[in-house]
Amino acid sequence: MKKHILYLLFFLSVMGLNTSCNYLDIVPDETATEADAFANPRAALKYLYSCYGYLPQSNMVQGCMDFTGDETISPFAETYVKFAEGSYDSSNMIISYWNTLFQGIRQCYLLKANISSVPNISKDEIDLYTAEADFLIAYFHLLLIKCYGPTVLVKELPALDTPAANMLGRRPYDECIDWVANLFDDAAQRLPATRSTADYGRATSVAAKSLKARMLLYAASPLFNGNPDYANFKNPDGEQLLSTTYSEEKYKRAADAAWEVIELADAAHYKLYESTSVSTSYPEPNDLTQRSLRMTFIDKEDYGEVIFAETRKAGTYSIQRKSIPYFPRGSWNGIAPTITMIDRFYTANGLPIDEDPEFNINNKLDIVTIPDGTTYAVPGRQTLYMHMNREPRFYAWVAFENGYYECRTTEERYAYSSFWGAKASDDKWITGFLATENCGVRADDGKVVTAARSQNYSKTGYLNKKGVHPGTEANINQVEPTIEYPWPIIRLAELYLNYAEACVGYGKEGYPEKGMAYLDKVRKRAGLKPVLESWAKAKQPLTSYDGQCGPDGRVMKIVRQERMIELYQENHNFWDIRRWKMGETYFNVKARGLNILAERLEDFAKIVEIQDKRTFDAPRQYLMPIPAGEVSKNPNMVQNPGY
After folding, report:
1. Which of 7, 234, 312, 574 has the smallest CB count inside 10 Å?
2. Do the Cβ atoms of 108 and 136 come closer than 8 Å?
3. Nearest to 405 by CA among 331, 467, 335, 470
4. In angstroms, rounded to a whole number, what is the distance separating the alpha carbons of residues 607 and 555?
5. At how many degrees (to 10) do helices 511-525 and 554-566 cross?
6. 279 CB contacts (<8 Å, ≥6 apart)?
7. What is the pLDDT of residue 26?
8. How far apart are CA 49 and CA 200, in angstroms?
């Protein structure tokens, strides 16, 4: 699928609600200009595009709560950093999607109400735009459920003058799930399986079924499946909003939905991305496994793994600009994996670091010399033992002391200066994180400065590489990335992992073996052996799935770790840890990193707590607060527990 220009065309049409108040010149106000919005087919298409603009922009880091999990930390004084502190409540939400999502739902119903009146529009266009509106209505509701749990179900165009007494209240969680699932199914019957040309980024049947399957997995998870914390969560009339009764059938339903969409995706020729050769345009990474992992969703010649994508530009606030080594204006050296995330990556044997008998976890901070022949770090230089002999995803997605960062620069200055001896090639740079090295907190333009930078440094001694195109440049004249690409909302690897988790959660009738076969496909692309083959050599061997499955079984822990690795930095960690009810463990602790103030490797090789505030109030913060104003004006609306 060659779609390398197409998403930009869609972006120019959408413009994005979050980036501009005049995202659609024809419809600056949806109620005052409806006649203009539906004056002709072109205007109607732009109106449809504006409906997509109400979706939260999942690739714009600074205002997206999805990036506030425990995977990375940054020094930037931005909204998402403040949100991660956990100080939000119903009157100070910091980031909230509630009003915007309901506005999007209303805009979709306005389209449905008016689309047939557009002069000279074809029946095929009417049917397609209506199907897309239904897809978006379902998706907006899915996002509301994900954030807030039981939600208001808006089944028709709401009247603006509805009396307070008649305002809609929240519906029970399971009812919400069923209604949205049915709407996704209905929309899928009327949508194409794939998109091409300028339509890339619009809804498809495979995207609808994929999002439905994801939603059903969330519904089967511990937060929503038999959670006693919500025993008193009720509507004003006493109606229970979340069942406290566990149902294994919810896992089976999620597994069956995932299997249905896997078959649909296969028929539509979606596939796990793999690089088969090294491009002369972007020669790094040159290891094909690492290249496949680095380029999974950013290869402009092949988006065959991406099922649904965010096509608006992230621009200045992208992962790319915030991740690559420091250069004024053009790159900010800040998105840094935490020690918790570093420890999650497997060893080269495909095992957790505490399960691999060949990995000495007690010596992980030892200083070692990088051997001759090493391709992921500089032979002859020193690094930490825990950076050696790790799985390919670690090397594809993380820059570490005396490892490589595959990117470019227009000028060899700052982190790229010859002063640091950081140049491995025009396409690959050596990263040093001691205070006085090129990516260190006190490094400047070919010299060492005495004061630490207040921003633009790694807080942990690592830098993120995932989502950074190896051809992107540090450029003093351009703050936006020099290469843009669609950001994955859902991709095939997630479908495989969703299927595995649901099958293991159900835990019987041959489901675990079926699901884990698809998880093994993800591992194979990552250069790892199947789970049972790897775990047969673990300190605590696992040679069969029998008796090891279910929501609390050992295999579920393996599935979750695999997911946290494969989907690292892709908007999942924040939500997965919540739905697994692990917020107290992972979000209520300070992030950790290496000692970045050290000038000697011996002092750098220490794990320290980062003093950024990180709190999680369980069970209250498992759900987001509804804006206080929305609750106060609607007598039928109940707030989420604890707010």
Report:
1. 234
2. yes
3. 470
4. 30
5. 30
6. none
7. 31
8. 12
Which pLDDT score, from 0 to 100, does residue 450 have? 80
Q: Does the N-terminal peptide bond of residue 619 adopt cis geometry, omega within 30 degrees of 0?
A: yes
Strand partners, 473: 408
CB atoms within 10 A of CB 413: 18
Q: What phi and psi, each to the nearest 5 degrees, are found at residue 219?
A: -65, -25
Locate 642 and state its tokens: 């604890």
Alpha helices by DSSP H, 189-323: 205-220, 249-267, 288-294, 319-323
Token digits for 543?
């040679």
| Per-residue confidence (pLDDT) for residue 329, from 0 to 100 | 81
Q: Is 76 exposed, middle or buried (0-12, 13-18, 19+ CB in 10 A)?
A: middle
What is the pLDDT, as a whole number, of residue 161?
86
Residue 158 confidence (pLDDT): 85
How far apart, in whole angstroms, are the C-alpha atoms of residue 62 and residue 455?
14
Tokens matching residue 254: 């999620």
Does the bond joining 641 to the residue before it have cis omega, within 30 degrees of 0? no
The Cα 525–Cα 518 span in angstroms is: 11
* Cβ–Cβ under 8 Å, residues 299 and 279: no
- Identify the band that residue 181 occupies on the pLDDT scale cut at 50, 70 and 90: very high
Backbone phi, psi, residue 424, to 5°: -95, -35
Distance CA 496, CA 627 (A): 36
Tell me the residue length of the chain: 643
Q: Find the helix or strand (DSSP H, E) in which 506 lies.
A: helix 492-506
Helical segments of 238-364, H only:
249-267, 288-294, 319-323, 339-344
Extract the tokens encoding 527: 């250069």
H or E element in which residue 488 lies: strand 487-491
Average of per-residue pLDDT values in the chain: 92
DSSP per residue over 387-414, as a string? Answer: GSSB-HHHHHHEE-TTEEE--EESS--G
Structure tokens at 422: 């950081």
CA distances (Å), origin 164, targets 161, 170, 234, 632 = 9, 14, 19, 10
Q: Vertex 463, ends 460 and 466: CA angle to 5°? A: 135
Whether residue 297 contacts residue 274, with contact meaning beta carbons closer than 8 Å, is answered with: no
